[in-house]
Design brief:
This is Methyltransferase. The chain has about 300 residues and is of the alpha/beta class. Helices cover about 35% and strands about 10% of the residues. The chain is globular. The protein binds S-adenosylmethionine.
Length: about 300
């Protein structure tokens, strides 16, 4: 892992060739000739931080699993609704584990939009991919958000390093409620990384009134066989890479909330958690492949 740099130590900018829509500004030293998983994901989301090589790679992955793009967008929409609801509930601190490139409606954007005048909020993004970290710092710096939002370049499997990181200590007061987001990241944590213990460590850090939000890939029994085969092929293709992924059932995920009450409507499919728009045909296709839920630590 490369050494952490705070947003204030962000690398100098260099303008990439072409118009902003065609080629965004890249942080110095970041390779835009090779695809980056974080930028490919940004392309699925409709963000602006991807290059031709990322889009080409993304299209190849889409051939393997055509639902990846709608599910990515539903994940992002769920996260947006959770952050909005947490803001409405008075939470002002957000920690986003496995944050990727923070474009296309990310946490700090929602927080900034909904923050009442005169109030303060803070956001810590956590990602271990140097490319995601570099783009994140650049975006936060460019948007003038570095004083209240930052990127901690750490591995979520080592929570103590995140808790004791200088930037986390500067921005997050764990004695007050925090909204901890784990969106499309825990499926990268395999059994050998002891996810149950990891979740317990994160829960133990959260003060009463905190929220814990999770989305996770699955393959439910009601999935059409051809779609189920696609997702299983997709997961298998990643097993021998540096980013193997795991699908989990609701029964495996529910204990991760440690018995804290789930906010209504409980554990459900992405389009069904407090939807703000009418259902669409793609919702029927994606429902069997992801779970989401938000728990609130009781006691406040
Ligand atoms: C699929 S993206 C999700 C991005 C964002 N949470 C969202 O839903 O839009 C997963 C991100 O998690 C990061 N990630 C995976 N494993 C991680 C780990 N052990 N520690 C930190 N970040 C991790 C990857 O680098 C990637 O940027």
């Amino acid at each position: 892992m490369s050494p952490r740099k705070t947003a204030r130590e962000a690398p100098p900018l260099r303008a990439a060739v072409g118009a902003w829509e065609e080629a965004p500004i890249a942080p110095a030293g970041v390779d835009t000739e090779k695809p980056s998983a974080a930028r490919v994901y940004d392309w699925y989301l409709g963000g602006t931080h991807h290059w031709a090589v990322d889009r080409e790679f993304g299209r190849r992955v889409e051939k393997l699993w055509p639902l990846i793009r709608p599910i990515s967008r539903q994940n992002r929409a769920f996260m947006n609704r959770v952050v909005s609801a947490a803001m409405d509930a008075g939470i002002r601190q957000f920690v986003d584990l496995g944050s990727g490139v923070p474009t296309a409606g990310n946490v700090h954007e929602i927080v900034r939009e909904r923050l009442p005048a005169g109030e303060r909020a803070s956001v810590v993004y956590v990602d271990y991919e140097p490319v995601a970290a570099a783009h994140s710092r650049l975006i936060l710096e460019r948007e003038g958000a570095s004083s209240w939002a930052g990127l901690v370049e750490r591995d979520i499997r080592r929570p103590e390093e995140i808790f004791t990181d200088d930037l986390t200590r500067e921005l997050i007061d764990w004695s007050r409620p925090v909204c901890l987001l784990m969106i499309t990241v825990m499926h990268f944590i395999g059994p050998s990384d002891e996810p149950d213990e990891l979740m317990a460590t994160y829960r133990s850090r959260l003060a009463p009134g905190s929220w814990l939000a999770l989305t996770h890939g699955t393959c439910r029994d009601d999935a059409p066989p051809d779609r189920a085969a696609e997702v299983r092929r997709f997961i298998e293709a990643y097993q021998d890479t540096s980013n193997p992924a795991w699908l989990r059932s609701a029964e495996e995920l529910l204990p991760w909330f440690g018995g804290w009450p789930l906010l209504p409507p409980g554990m459900t499919s992405l389009p069904d958690w407090r939807p703000e728009t009418p259902p669409t045909p793609i919702d029927t296709e994606t429902r069997p492949f992801a779970w989401c839920a938000v728990a609130r630590r009781p006691g406040l």
